[in-house]
Amino acid sequence: MTRSEKAVSIFNEGFSCSQATLSAFASDFGLDKELALKISCAFGGGISHLGSVCGAVSGALMVIGLKYGRTKKEDTKARDETYRLANDFINKFKERNNSTICNELLDCDISTTDGLEIARGKRGNPDFCPKFVKDAVEILEEIL
Does residue 124 contact residue 130 with C-beta atoms inside 8 Å? Predict the structure, then answer.
């Protein structure tokens, strides 16, 4: 099973796009799956069902931070590399999907009850969330 298939499988188990994306890489950074799921939980649904930044994007940015993020304030090289890769990721995700905003990707406002129901109906559709998770993981593998 490829890493992107693993991430989609985690998503299809009922976890959010952010959880699926981060947890697919967790073991690479000594993070157990349970902790990765907890860390990334609030980022699903465009950050807690607000329809903002797609959770798959948020999860991917967490992965980039785990690999390249700075741990000392004076390490501006690590910060700059993290930002460069994050921007690269965002641009590649936009090339594939035209946006990084959950509401735009799902074509509904998931911060509303009606919009959330519409989005939940699209959950298993391979043209929506599973695709965004798959794309995020594939792009990460390409740029990492």
Answer: yes
